[in-house]
UniProtKB/TrEMBL annotation:
Residues 29-379 form the Aminotransferase class I/classII large domain. The lineage of its organism: Bacteria, Pseudomonadati, Bacteroidota, Cytophagia, Cytophagales. Keywords: Aminotransferase, Pyridoxal phosphate, Transferase. It holds the Pfam family Aminotran_1_2. It comes from the Bacteria. It comes from Pontibacter populi. This is Methionine aminotransferase. The keyword Transferase applies. The keyword Ligase does not apply. GO terms for molecular function: methionine-oxo-acid transaminase activity. Its cofactor is pyridoxal 5'-phosphate.
Length: 382
């Protein structure tokens, strides 16, 4: 019998998103767990994909991404954040934001390096750090609003700190970092060798008249950051897995060394189609209102329930606190919710390395009004 090697990630199993979606399918529950829309992308975008497929754009794209797409990203970035990155040396199209995150971490984290991770956090950060020999240093966000305690961040920085990872708007909590937050982060890293990954995949989903503050707006952060975005989130096409990373030339060079050996390039006709569709600025500029309507509807439907919540400030996720309903661990309550109530959510403890449980569940409201209403009707009965 073969002597199999020991696992590089012995404590990592199937992601909570896959687990809850499988449970939802098994029990025919309404799935508000995994973060994807239950509606289609614009017809115009699909027609553009078909156009480029039939036109023969089906072979390898350039490793950094299709030129026209990188140029459109550059123009859009300047309009939104006041900085125009060089399409040739600062923009890389990747096979989803997850690949961009992995490539960025792999590019700069060496064995023994420490990486500050704000918890709760998206579940791909720590495994990528560990696979590269790095050490995740977990800093909890401050309740009740899941804000960053910058003094606590500073206390967790050492001579071994290589990287700080931030995420705004924040998955899973929906919290949004302010300009003051970005300024404080810039103050912390200024004059050091600490780099930053700014995960901004929900950049177009900020509500109540507030705006998204990108690391690209801050000159100190811009010169040391990988800023990561997602067309999947912006254009309701999570299954296409197309994202991109913006970074200064020296960091982009290192990221591309990783990218070329992870996927090399990203789906060609989709890149050309998105490049054309980006001329339709109304789509992404209208996303805050589009998703705020869904958030408001979901919260209104839930108003008679026993859940405690504040409307999400960003992303397409809403946290619900269930202390008035049950004292169960959130993972147990989430499973019972699927099995007995017929609604799937994600327990927020899954976003903590030590499964910290504050009795919150995360619900995705990137769904049709009918889906949200049907789910809320079930939840209100608890």
């Amino acid at each position: 019998m073969a002597n199999y090697p020991t696992s590089k990630l012995p404590d990592v199993g199937t992601s909570i998103f896959s687990v809850m979606s499988a449970l939802a399918n098994e029990h025919k529950a309404i799935n508000l767990s995994q973060g994807f829309p239950d509606f289609n992308c614009p017809d115009e975008l699909m027609e553009l994909v078909t156009k480029y497929m039939h036109a023969g754009f089906n072979q390898y794209a350039p490793m950094p991404g299709v030129v026209s797409l990188r140029e459109k990203i550059s123009i859009k970035t300047e309009k939104l954040y006041g900085y125009r990155p060089n399409p040739d040396t600062e923009i890389t199209v990747t096979s989803g934001a997850t690949e961009a995150l992995y490539a960025a971490i792999t590019a700069v984290v060496k064995p023994g390096d420490e990486v500050v991770v704000l918890e709760p956090c998206y579940d791909c950060y720590a495994p990528a750090i560990r696979l590269n020999g790095g050490i995740p240093v977990y800093v909890p966000l401050a309740l009740p609003g899941f804000s960053v305690d910058w003094d606590l961040v500073k206390r967790n920085i050492s001579s071994k700190t290589r990287l700080i990872i931030i995420n705004t708007p924040h998955n899973p909590t929906g919290a949004v970092m302010t300009k003051a937050d970005m300024d404080e982060l810039a103050h912390i890293v200024d004059g050091s060798d600490i780099l930053v990954i700014s995960d901004e995949v929900y950049e177009h989903m900020v509500f109540d008249g507030f705006k998204h503050h990108s690391a690209l707006e801050n000159a100190i952060l811009r010169e040391r950051s990988f800023v990561i975005s997602s067309f999947g989130k912006t254009y309701h096409t999570t299954g296409w897995k197309i994202g991109y990373a913006i970074a200064p030339p020296a960091l982009t060079t290192e990221l591309r060394k990783m990218h070329q050996f992870i996927t090399f390039s990203t789906v060609t006709p989709l890149q050309f189609a998105i490049a054309d569709f980006m001329d339709n600025e109304a789509h992404y500029l209208g996303l805050p209102d589009f998703y705020q309507e869904k958030r408001d509807a979901f919260c209104e439907y839930l108003a008679p329930s026993r859940f405690e919540f504040l409307p999400s400030a960003g992303t397409y996720f809403q946290l619900l606190k269930y202390d008035a309903i049950s004292g169960e661990h959130d993972q147990d309550f989430a499973k019972r919710l699927v099995q007995e109530v017929g609604v799937a959510a994600v327990p927020v403890s899954a976003f903590y390395h030590n499964k910290t449980d504050h009795h919150y569940l995360r619900f995705c409201f990137a769904k049709s009004d009918e889906t949200l209403c049907a789910a809320a009707e079930k939840l209100v009965k608890l």
